[in-house]
Amino acid sequence: MKAVVTGGAGFIGSNLVEELANRGTEVVILDD
Predict the structure, then answer these.
(1) Contact between residue 29 and residue 23 where contact means Cβ atoms under 8 Å apart
(2) Are residues 12 and 18 in contact, defined by beta-carbon separation less than 8 angstroms?
(3) How far is 20 from 17, CA to CA, in rounded Å?
(4) What are φ and ψ of residue 2, in 5° steps?
(5) Residue 28's pLDDT is what?
(6) Half-sphere exposure of residue 2, counting CA atoms within 13 Å on the CB side?
(7) Which residues, at least 6 apart from 6, have a Cβ–Cβ distance to it below 8 Å?
(8) Is 27 within 8 Å of 3 (Cβ atoms)?
(9) Considering all CA atoms of the chain, what is the largest pairwise distance in Å, rounded to the nearest integer?
(10) How far apart are CA 31 and CA 24, in angstroms?
(11) Eight-class DSSP state of 18
(12) Backbone phi, then psi, for 24, in 5-degree steps?
C-alpha cells in the first residue's frame, strides 16, 4: 500500500506517518 500525507512534519502527521510505516505502508510526506 502507498500513502501521501500532507503536513507529515507536524505532531499528528508524524505520528500518522510512523504508524503507517510500521504497518508496511510506503509513505510520501508533503510539507513546507
Answers:
(1) no
(2) no
(3) 5
(4) -125, 150
(5) 98
(6) 2
(7) 13, 30, 31
(8) yes
(9) 25
(10) 21
(11) H
(12) 90, 15
Query: What are the grid coordinates assigned to 14, written together?
Result: 508524524
Give the pLDDT confidence of 1-32 residue by residue, as tens digits.
Answer: 999 999 999 999 999 999 999 999 999 999 99
CA dihedral sign, ordered 1, 26, 24, 17: negative
Cβ(19)–Cβ(1) below 8 Å? no
Cα distance between residue 12 and residue 32, in whole Å: 15
| Cell representation of residue 6 | 500532507
Give the position of cell 499528528.
12
